[in-house]
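Justification of resources, computational component.

The compute hours requested in this renewal are based largely on the per-chain cost of generating structure records like the one below. Each record pairs the submitted sequence with a full structure-token output. That output is archived, and it is also reused by downstream analysis tasks.
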Amino acid sequence: MPDKPPNETDPANTANRATRDTWKIRPLPERRTQLAFKRAFSREEYQRVALGFVPREMEDKWFIYLNGLDGPDDLDGPDGEWLYLHRSWTGICIYSLRLLPIGEGHRVSEAWVNRDPEEYRMVDDQYDAELLQFLIDSILLGKADAARPLSPLNRPKGALSE
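The structure output for this chain reads:
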């Protein structure tokens, strides 16, 4: 019986999956803030998220990978996997999300953002949660209709929710 070809969206297919060894990266610094960010992924969405993203052109500004698929290591504990979003040019980690299995899919149980002013100058938690949503939808899930959030500097007065 012939072998089936590898499924490109299968996170076990390491040939197509970004890993922390794929790119030169820096860890999330100690100066960080937990974001109020909740998200659930269906099984199909999780398979796409698990592949991560490796930049191929100068315009690709993010490197994203899911750690913990091969078992716990020095960055991850036994409780879940971590999705890391790094700036591609500098390797600086901006976001990390802990994913836990739930039913057929996964959910975000923790989300963290870099708050080291030497690495990342943004300090608006709402903007960061919106940008994180946009990055997941547009880059990892390929949703063409994902809306990029307005920078806090470009928002009309009173546009920020309380």
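Strands lie at 32-34, 40-41, 62-67, 81-87, 93-102, 105-114. The helical segments are 43-51, 125-140.
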